[in-house]
């Protein structure tokens, strides 16, 4: 039996009807939906490759759009946290530094994933017919499946702890759920 009293108290600090919070949830959910739908559409039609003149150019353009959308998502996430109350019992140095450490580990996973996959490997090149010569099994893939997704989730978790933000923690759960669904869809 799970005691949810602490979670209920924690999320009592979150106004889920706040416009900024709703926009953050929508931007979090939209990103993986967008890139999966566009990538599958490209795989079936090759329409983007035709428009951009080559699969590589199309993949780079989609990657740029995904990067911009990720910046928008991060901005919405941050603004939603700032508009909601902090959990004063967490506004201490130890929480801040724990969040900083978690974000650093997440950043390590994201950057090392990108370096291992390259731009086209990171941004759905396989859907454009740009295939890697072999499956990447080096760090961080050697210790974690989908390290870019879980690294990104860790960055948001750390950011939430650094800001003592119950809203951030709830939004981090939305990130984790969105990536879990994306992994199921992509698999």
Automatic annotation (TrEMBL):
Its main location: endoplasmic reticulum. It is a multi-pass membrane protein. Its EC number is 2.1.1.17, 2.1.1.71. It holds the Pfam family PEMT. One of its GO terms (cellular component) is endoplasmic reticulum membrane. It is found in: Endoplasmic reticulum membrane. It catalyses: 1,2-di-(9Z,12Z-octadecadienoyl)-sn-glycero-3-phosphoethanolamine + S-adenosyl-L-methionine = 1,2-di-(9Z,12Z-octadecadienoyl)-sn-glycero-3-phospho-N-methylethanolamine + S-adenosyl-L-homocysteine + H(+); 1-hexadecanoyl-2-(4Z,7Z,10Z,13Z,16Z,19Z-docosahexaenoyl)-sn-glycero-3-phospho-N-methylethanolamine + S-adenosyl-L-methionine = 1-hexadecanoyl-2-(4Z,7Z,10Z,13Z,16Z,19Z-docosahexaenoyl)-sn-glycero-3-phospho-N,N-dimethylethanolamine + S-adenosyl-L-homocysteine + H(+); 1,2-di-(9Z,12Z,15Z-octadecatrienoyl)-sn-glycero-3-phosphoethanolamine + S-adenosyl-L-methionine = 1,2-di-(9Z,12Z,15Z-octadecatrienoyl)-sn-glycero-3-phospho-N-methylethanolamine + S-adenosyl-L-homocysteine + H(+); 1,2-di-(9Z-octadecenoyl)-sn-glycero-3-phospho-N-methylethanolamine + S-adenosyl-L-methionine = 1,2-di-(9Z-octadecenoyl)-sn-glycero-3-phospho-N,N-dimethylethanolamine + S-adenosyl-L-homocysteine + H(+). GO terms for biological process: methylation; phosphatidylcholine biosynthetic process. One of its GO terms (molecular function) is phosphatidyl-N-methylethanolamine N-methyltransferase activity. Pathway: Lipid metabolism; Phospholipid metabolism; phosphatidylcholine biosynthesis. InterPro entries: PEMT/MFAP, Phopholipid_MeTrfase. It comes from the Eukaryota. The chain crosses the membrane at residues 20-37, 95-124, 165-185. Keywords: Endoplasmic reticulum, Lipid biosynthesis, Lipid metabolism, Membrane, Methyltransferase, Mitochondrion, Phospholipid biosynthesis, Phospholipid metabolism, S-adenosyl-L-methionine, Transferase, Transmembrane, Transmembrane helix. PANTHER family: PHOSPHATIDYLETHANOLAMINE N-METHYLTRANSFERASE. This is Phosphatidylethanolamine N-methyltransferase. It comes from Ptilorrhoa leucosticta.
